[in-house]
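Write out this protein's structure.
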Amino acid sequence: MCQYDPECPVHRHRPGTTCPVVYRKRMAVIREQERREQQRQDRIAVLVALVVVVVMFVIGYVVASVVAPDFVAQVRQALGI
């Protein structure tokens, strides 16, 4: 056990060096934070894409109802709305 971490198998490290177990744990924490941030960004991107698709459908419906109201009525009738 070293002076830095009780799980470290080394009793003493050379002067001026750090404990490799502490370094590995710190790097694991950093990698986990990066992974969570990437997942968060991915979720935001999916949400934005979903909103864009819904907005495009709404705009398309509005334009179609203005340009060709008979077509929209036929589509609604076919869908049973």
